[in-house]
Amino acid sequence: MRLLLIDGHYYVYRSFFAIPNLSNSRGEPTNATFGFTKTLRLMVKHLQPELGAVVWDEGLPQKRVEVQPAYKETRKEMPTAMIPQLDFIQKLTPLLGFRNISLPNTEADDLMGCYAVAGCKQPQWKWCWRPTTKICFNSSVRA
Questions:
Q1: How many other C-beta atoms can be found within 10 angstroms of the C-beta atom of residue 82?
Q2: How confident is the model at residue 135 (pLDDT cuts 50, 70, 90)?
Q3: Which of 55, 56, 43, 47 is nearest to 1 (CA)?
């Protein structure tokens, strides 16, 4: 079984800033939507997963903020032009064959890590973790 887990917010932000000034005929920004969709399709083409999910941030972990009060305090607000695209992308994701996964007060990286740990306990799965590209991928090939 091949599973592809994708950090949704990471790729939405990356696409938004990598492709500036792209909009539809109504003048609505589409840069994040275009880049995210293109990236997802390329991952499917090259990695050929049997299952996939896009994992989304859904708030900050309260315990982390208690331990480290300055955690992400310098992070800027989401750009206004990105908000409607994010909503659209989350509705589009299932149409592209991927599930949306999120958990209240949990960041995508943490949730992806939990899935990776659980997957490592399955002897028939060999995990390939690529943190620089935020991809978690398993293969049915035994280690």
A1: 21
A2: very low
A3: 47
Residue for token digits 């990598």?
18
* Tens of pLDDT, residues 85-96: 999 999 999 999
Q: What is the pLDDT of residues 55-71, one digit of tens each?
A: 999 877 777 777 777 77
Question: Using the 8-state DSSP alphabet, how is residue 75 labeled?
Answer: P
Q: Which residues, in sequence order, are bridge partners of residue 6?
A: 54, 135
| Residue (of 120, 137, 124) closest to 43 by Cα position | 137
Domain covering 8-106: architecture? 3-Layer(aba) Sandwich (3.40)
DSSP state of 29: B
Residue whose pair of structure tokens reads 């991928």 in the numeric block: 137
On whether the CB atoms of residues 11 and 39 are closer than 8 A, the answer is yes
The residue ranking higher by pLDDT, 105 or 122, is 105
Counted residue by residue, the chain has a size of 143
Domain definitions of the chain by residue range: 8-106
Distance from the Cα of residue 98 to its chain's centroid: 11
Closest CA relative to residue 58, chosen from 7, 21, 4 = 7
DSSP state of 58: B
Average pLDDT, the chain: 83
